Amino acid sequence: MRAVSFADFGGPEVLELVEVPEPHAGPGQVRVAVRAAGVNAYDWRVREGQFQKVSPIRLPAGVGLDASGVVDEVGEGVSGVEVGDRVFGDGTATYAEFAVLSAWGLMPEGLSFEEAAGYPSVVETALRVIRQVGVEPGRTLLASGASGGVGSAVLQIARDRGISVIATAGPANQDYLRGLGAVATTYGAGLVARVRALGHVDAAVDLAGSGVIRELVELTGDPRKVLSIADPGAPEFGARFSAKAENLPGAIAEAARLFAHGKLRIPVEKTYSLDQAAAAHIDSAAGHTRGRRVMVV
After folding, report:
1. What is the rounded CA–CA span in Å between residue 283 and residue 238?
2. What pTM was estimated for this model as a whole?
3. 187 within 8 A of 145, measured Cβ to Cβ
4. What is the DSSP letter of 53?
5. Chain mean position to CA 265
6. How far apart are CA 71 and CA 88, in angstroms?
7. Among 137, 119, 141, which Cα is nearest to 219's?
8. Which of 146, 172, 210, 249 could form a disulfide with 167 if both were Cys (CB 3.0 to 4.6 A apart)?
9. How far apart are CA 98 and CA 201, in angstroms?
């Protein structure tokens, strides 16, 4: 089968579309004929070797965590899903024609393969950071770099839970943030003053890794109320760095529930074919994404 792989850490040019043996579902897993795979910042950060000290991988390695598709193998001990079911979930090496998922859920009616592929990791991450940063209903969360997939999920989940959000993004995405229920402002010089003019901040999450941890600590007044998913240097300022998924099955189930109730939509900004993986990583790393980028198989 065809799959995207890399044999050395480096820039997008190390990605190759190669022929590899088909994977097979082991105990507690399903295999899917992939229809779409989510493009996450985590994918290109792993490709660059950024997480080798935290979560080392062996090369050559496949690319991708999230996928949607049609089940064509069911592993031992798996129940509640059958060959032919449409599912979305999380696994390994999902930029491929076939992928094995270790966590999945049935796709709700009306959810496309392209949009579904962008949900698993970003919804898990959004739920995790809201929980870990300890922001409660009735309080205000600052989300820095909020127009991408995780930010889109954070804003909608926070709104569903009664948490107010002040969100930052580039000038072109201000209306998008407002449409998701946030009070919007731009990032860059003067951030602290702009946010303070909008209101008090109880907690803050850095979703883009744009070097704003010091400012977020200043705004919250407590480094323990600041968390980053994109800046491993956050602990240098007393803030936390969160990169490890905690409850993917629960997150996928929550994504399906929120979508079915009209409370979660993450638009697909752009799609790519497998042979365009390098372009997808270049665009993802450039930022300014509105919603999700997705590989279509």
Report:
1. 31
2. 0.91
3. yes
4. T
5. 14
6. 10
7. 141
8. 146
9. 44
